[in-house]
Specification:
With 532 residues, this protein is α/β, with parallel strands linked by helices. It contains 18 helices and 17 strands. The two termini are 29 Å apart.
């Protein structure tokens, strides 16, 4: 799976913002990369208060990106190229511009229009204090007061009021939405904030500290057990199509609860974020892989592997920074606060480890989810000036957290300005000069480039992939070594010492070998007769 952050992929109409026809123009690139499917970030009408995750209308296309004609052309062309399509659906909240919320503001407290959302009276005689001390995920309070004195809940920004999923009209309307896009040929959905829909918010409201200590499944608004009832309804709709539509949950929950979202009666798949949060460390990688393989096996789901996405510092940068304490991976946020100056970034080390990590996850059983630009070895753009930042985290944190713009800078396709082939004008987020040497044009004909390593690895994976078994081989150094059916070995060296490789044919490596031995921060695939 290849994640497309649409605003930053390719621009067709010279406005500096990526769009549907821009994506369409790069289908040949995606074919050559060899991916099976793409997941497209939200393209619905939006004020883009949070990158398009503030949705005005779930069954329309924002004119910034094109229209239904462009969408239909994209779907048909991707399907002709044997690439499936997932849309991003955002069911936890709408935008403040959504027709429902505008109606709610015009309607009195207690009205059916307000019941679609979560409105509450404040504290005190004049309702001047918020109903609780809850904070939002993107900084600041989770409640905003409206003109008549009531407050509405927004677990993200004030531009994203939370929906009330106890309201049957809300449930029925989202069933209509998933049918709408499925009828247009969409093959599945990435479900944003999948763990946040079911809420139990009755007065009096406990404090944030109190609810964070509640046992799993009973938190007031995260990962409640009854959220699965919603996805059971969705699955019944998905299964009415041939083939059934698939879905994957973005659920920030303990690994032990992921299988609930990935069950065959629910969404069917859930993101594993453990590797995205891990240090470059053998033991952390091993624990994450074993735990997620076990959880997927519980419900006969396909495990997922993610090392970068649109919400995190790119892994080439994370791995080039001093690693965190065990169990508290280097997330790069402190480095971003310093505008990419401190701690010093070792770009060569980060890229070497990033290539090794990519080759490693591409050998694992299950579904690797790749984020646009990782196949180019892109680093995070850490020195974006404050005046260009768009992520609401920056302002809502009092400008103390720089946010996610650095991984969303538009892709470089060519070596030259003004926007390295992304557009004919400058991109909506400024691109650094070093993008030139990372561009598709610069890497396309270089057999040692990161881009061509991804292409070869994905092609080899398709040939080698078989049953979802994995057998670990005991190691004497700091390497991880597993065997897939058919004698396909994968070895990654996390330590400083050279590691001997098993006998057989070395078919791909993330970096040069030293004789027949594997150097530090390198992965190799070896094929030999089955010996397990």
């Amino acid at each position: 799976m290849y994640q497309v952050y649409l605003r930053s992929f390719a621009d067709s109409n010279s406005d500096g913002i990526g769009d549907l026809l821009g994506l369409h123009s790069r289908i040949t690139y995606l074919q050559k990369l060899g991916i099976d499917a793409i997941w497209i970030s939200p393209f619905y009408p939006s004020a883009f208060a949070d990158g398009g995750y503030d949705v005005d209308d779930y069954r329309d296309v924002d004119s910034t990106f094109g229209g239904f004609r462009e969408f239909a052309l994209l779907i048909s062309s991707l399907h002709a190229a044997e690439i499936k399509v997932l849309c991003d659906i955002v069911p936890n909240h709408t935008s403040v511009r959504h027709s429902w919320f505008r109606e709610a503001l015009r309607s009195p407290p207690g009205s059916p229009a307000r019941d679609r959302y979560i409105f509450r009276d404040g504290i005190g005689e004049d309702n001047s204090l918020a109903p609780s001390d809850w904070s939002s995920k993107l900084g600041g309070p989770a409640w905003t007061r409206v003109s008549d004195g009531q407050w509405y809940l927004h677990l993200f920004t004030p531009a994203q009021p939370d929906l009330n999923w106890q309201n049957l009209e809300v449930r029925k309307d989202f069933l209509k939405t998933i049918r709408f896009w499925s009828d247009l040929g969409v093959d599945g959905f990435r479900v944003d904030v999948a763990h946040g829909l079911a809420k139990d918010i009755a007065s009096p409201l406990p404090s944030m500290a109190e609810i964070n200590n509640l046992p799993p499944g009973s938190h007031l608004f995260w990962d409640r057990d009854e959220v699965q009832e919603i996805y059971t309804e969705w699955r019944q709709v998905f299964n009415q199509y041939d083939p059934p539509r698939m879905a994957i949950a973005e659920a920030e929950v303990p690994v032990s609860r992921l299988s609930r979202y990935a069950s065959p009666t629910g969404l069917g798949q859930a993101f594993c974020f453990d590797l995205l949060r891990s240090n470059w460390d053998k033991d952390e990688f091993l624990a994450a892989i074993d735990e997620n393989l076990a959880q997927a096996e519980l419900v006969n789901s396909s495990p997922t592997w993610v090392i970068s996405n649109h919400d995190s510092v790119r892994h080439a940068t994370r791995y080039g920074l001093p690693q965190g304490t065990l169990g508290a991976g280097q997330d790069g946020k402190a480095w971003l606060r310093s505008n990419g100056m401190e701690p010093p970034l070792d770009t060569d080390l980060g890229l070497r480890r990033a290539r090794a990590a990519a080759l490693f996850i591409l050998a694992l059983p299950g579904s690797p989810y790749l984020y646009q630009g990782e196949e180019l070895g892109l680093h995070e753009v850490g020195d974006l000036p404050a005046h260009v930042l768009q992520d609401p985290i920056f302002e809502r944190s009092g400008r103390t957290i720089k946010g996610r713009d650095g991984c969303r800078v538009p892709l470089p396709w060519t070596r030259t300005r003004p926007s390295f082939g992304f557009s004919t004008v400058e991109a909506y987020l400024p691109q650094p000069d070093w993008f030139s040497r990372c561009s598709v044009e610069a890497q396309d004909a270089d057999p040692t480039s990161t881009l061509n390593m991804y292409r070869r690895a994905i092609a080899l994976r398709r040939k080698l992939e078989g049953p979802g078994d994995l057998h670990w081989v005991a190691s004497r150094h700091r390497e991880l070594h597993f065997i897939r059916p058919g004698g396909w070995h994968c070895v990654v060296n996390f330590g400083p010492n050279l590691v001997p490789l098993p006998g057989g044919e070395v078919i791909i490596t993330s970096g040069p070998l030293v004789g027949s031995r594997l150097p530090a921060d390198t992965t190799a695939w070896i094929v030999q007769p089955e010996r397990v």
